């Protein structure tokens, strides 16, 4: 099955914040990839990974990062597909430093941010499905069911 959503996080410790959103994708049989690649610790690996995204028909990237949160901007600088930045909790300011870093990305890089933490990742999942539903209506049913579950 083709994975249209790529989830990237900068640290294995971030995965605990992603579990609920990933479970939603699994429940609705939405294929995705999950990779741990740090923009700071391994920029060459991240560069190589990003160069393959469009070749692999990925249509949305959810980039999750804490602290300095370079990951979403780094990814957006290398791809021409939507990138959603999610700030992870932790760090000196409880994640606000990561959020400010993401929403302060320099002009010229299109990044959306859904906020900070677990809820932000769930919202990024929903937003990514909404983006995909513009081309393929099969994703719209999942969006509606997920949104309904929060009412």
Structural class: alpha/beta
| Oligomer kind | single chain
CATH architecture: 3-Layer(aba) Sandwich
Q: How many domains comprise the coordinates?
A: 1
Distance between the termini: 31 Å
Strand order within the widest beta sheet:
2-1-3-4-5
SSE string, helices as H and strands as E = EHEHEHEHEHH
Percent strand? 15-25%
Number of strands: 5
CATH class: Alpha Beta
Query: Mean pLDDT, as a whole number?
Result: 94
Biggest β-sheet strands, sense, barrel = 5 strands, parallel
Which shape, going by the Cα principal axes? globular
What name does the CATH topology carry?
Answer: Rossmann fold
Cα gyration radius (Å) = 14 Å
What does this structure look like?
About 40% of the residues are buried. The chain has a single domain, classed as Rossmann fold (3-Layer(aba) Sandwich), CATH 3.40.50. The model has no long low-confidence stretch (mean pLDDT about 95). β4, α4 (about 95-105) and β5 (about 110-115) form a beta-alpha-beta unit. It has about 150 residues and is α/β, with parallel strands linked by helices. Helix content is about 45%, strand content about 20%. The protein has helices at about 15-25, 45-55, 70-80, 95-105, 120-135, 140-150; strands spanning about 5-10, 30-35, 60-65, 85, 110-115. It contains 6 helices and 5 strands; from the N terminus they run βαβαβαβαβαα. It has a 5-stranded parallel sheet with strand order 2-1-3-4-5, sandwiched between helices. The N and C termini lie far apart (about 30 Å). The longest helix has 16 residues, at about 120-135.
